[in-house]
Amino acid sequence: MASPASPRQWAEKGTIRRITTWDEPVMHRHCPPVTDFGPALQQLAADMFATMAAADGVGLAAPQVDVDLAMFVYDCPDADEHHHFGVMCNPVVELPQGEDRNFDAAEEGCLSWPGAYQSLARPDQAICRGLNEHGEPVTVIGTGLLARCLQHETDHLDGTVFGDRLSSRARRKLNEQRETLRHLYPDDWPVTPRGRYDATVVDTDDDSPNA
Ligand SMILES: [Zn+2]
Questions:
Q1: pLDDT digits (tens, 9 = 90+) for 163-180
Q2: Staple partner for 116: which of 29, 138, 168, 178, CB 3.0–4.6 Å?
Q3: Domains of the chain
Q4: For residue 41, what are the contacts with CB-CB under 8 A and spacing of at least 6?
């Protein structure tokens, strides 16, 4: 069976699911690998594309829809503004070492801790190897935001959230931002859309990418 040719085609086959939050244990467990590439995985991928689009994200990992599997979807621009999308199962990320490694400090956000952003330095390139939705080997070379996304999503499958990579001070600020905005996100978000920002109360950078 041919795969959908665009993120939108994927999303049209899917149903929006609730996104889990960092308060839930599924976000902090190592996910077992995908071994069955049958119809259930195709439906999960479609549902995740639909959910990612509804939440305006650039990446979404299976534990973020309460599924304990090493798989994520992405729809994300690279440093040259070329959009990449796909399904990545059982990913392994390779980062540049030594002189080749440059860190990029940029605002990072997470759909499972929505509304909160902190600057986090990560290597500006990442090579991600894994399997696509058919179990075929794929390699994605990430630059710019895509490099960050590949690292962020693979972290999720190890039970690591980006808050775990922040200093305790930055994590405290992140949690304060989250508390300030928590009321805008219904328990079943994005099945029920987010409430509206009140710009008189909240000063937030709503353009930062989420994954
Ligand atoms: Zn995330």
A1: 999 999 999 999 999 999
A2: 178
A3: 7-184 (3.90.45.10)
A4: 34, 71, 89, 133
